Each structure stands twice: as structure tokens, then as C-alpha cells.
Amino acid sequence: MLSEKIKKRLEFKLQNTRLRQLIAGEIVALLAEKPDDVNTEEYCMTVAELVVGELKAKLCRPFEEKPLDSGEKEAAASDQATDFDAVIKRLTTGVEHALLAGNLQMLRALGEAIAQRDTGTSKHSPRVTLLSIALAEHLDLDTERIQALIKGSFLHDIGKIGIADDILLKPRGLTDEERATMNSHPQLGAMIISSVSWLADALDVVRHHHERWDGSGYPDGLKGEGIPLNARIFAVVDVFDALASDRPYKDAMGFDEVRKEILAERGKYFDPGIVDAFDQIARLLYNKYMGKPYHVLDELVRHAMETHFGAATPIPL
Ligand SMILES: [Fe+2]
Fold it and tell me: What's the predicted TM-score (pTM) here?
């Protein structure tokens, strides 16, 4: 039998490798069967060749087949390519799903943290995301744009992380200087996420959600359709949610009052086309989402993310 010392050395060499996870069981089983009268080194070499040979046969078969007649060749190539492609696809899909699920979890956690610090409630984050998704679906936007909108909705105010509490939490009466600092949050947010390639498509919302249709917004004073579409959509739902919910410094408005405020900004603050589309579903969304507890909103947003990203988001957060 193989000595304990050699077994341990082999285990040490293989530890923390993917190879070990995949084939260690088989290798150890083969090594454990070494007859006492066989040289250990030779036996190890034989086992290694056997394992490598089997792996090669499984993984490299399409590249080493002997010449076949044309019919056999076509069928074999097709089968092998299908097998090989299927394995690679399964592996990459698994990895991609795991990464995506992790990213989506991180997105929700970050969104909640930002909303909690700024508005004192976690509900703002899932609710504006749900409102954005509903409006985007109503506008029949494509999947990629909706995915970008979801990311942007969660992270729209991430720049407020860099705003000091005495300014961020001041209910009213900001000085000009304080207002300028507060209004720097879209640029700050854009800077924070700019190094994350997966969030590149969230930049439209993060940087431009305070632009105004008439060009009087910030940070870039963009006007009309010069403002990215996702930012125009998000601006409407963000203000709708702010007006319709309680904040530490104000009570929530009722639906009719909120609707009136939004319509009054049609063509000024907001894109008139977006306001018209939102107005068609606003009552329904108000009844569906406003006043709902966090766990209900969170469950709904998780389901919506699964739908639009095609990935399972693990439970719990
Ligand atoms: Fe903002």
C-alpha cells in the first residue's frame, strides 16, 4: 500500500485546485490499491498517465480522431462537437449565472443601503425599481434597456454616499454652497461606478436622473431627447415615489395630488411622452406598490429581476 507520507504529499500538491475537486477521489482510490510489491514511483506514473489519458480522451477527442469516411466523420464530428459544446456551455452558463446572481444580490444590498441612509427607508429602492420596470414594460422597451434601468434604479443616488450628513440630512434651507455640494451627487455617483464594467449601462440613470426636459436640470443641463431615455423614465418614477411616500420631514401625498404635480411638470421637468405613458398606469402602480411592506416589495423586485436577467437570485439576501 502507498505510504501515508506519499499520500499526504500528493494531497498537499493537489489541494485547492479544481483538478483535485474533480478527480481527487478517483486518484486516491487508484493509489490506495497499489500492491505492496510494485514500485511506488512507477505506480504513481501509471496512475497519472491513466488519469491524464482518460481526461485527454474525454476533452480532446474531436482533435485526435483517426480519419473516418465522410459520413462517419460528419456524424462523429457533430456528436463530439455537440458533447464538447454542451459541456463548455454548461460550465460557462453555470459560472455566468453564479456571477450574475452575486451581482444582482450586491445591487439590491447596495440600493437598500443608499436608500436607508438618504431617505430613512429601505422601501424607496425596490419601489422605484419596480415602478421603472413597469413603465419600461408599458413602453415595450427591449431587455437590455430594462436591465440597464434596473441597475440605474438601484444605484441612482449612490453618489450621496459621498455627501456629508449635515448636508444630506438637512431637511430644508440649504445654502447655495450646500446645494451645489448636494447637486454634485450624480457626478460623484457616476465616478464611483465608472470602474465597474458590469455597471457601465447604469451610468445614464446615475449621472442624468436630475436633468430636466427644458434643459434647466443638472449636472450637464441636457435638454429634451438629448437626455438618455432611461434617465427620462427614471426621473418621473423617482419624483412620483418621493411625493407619494412619507419622509422624515414630510407626509405622503394622496394619488390625485401626486398625479397633479407630475402632470404640472409635463414638458418642463419631464418628457411629455413619458408622462403620458406613465399616467395610463400610474393609478394601478400606486395601488400595487405604495404602502406595501419592505418584504413584499423585495420579493416582487427579486422576481422582476429573475424575469429580466434570466437568473435565479439566491434567497436570502
Ligand atoms: Fe438623486
Answer: 0.69
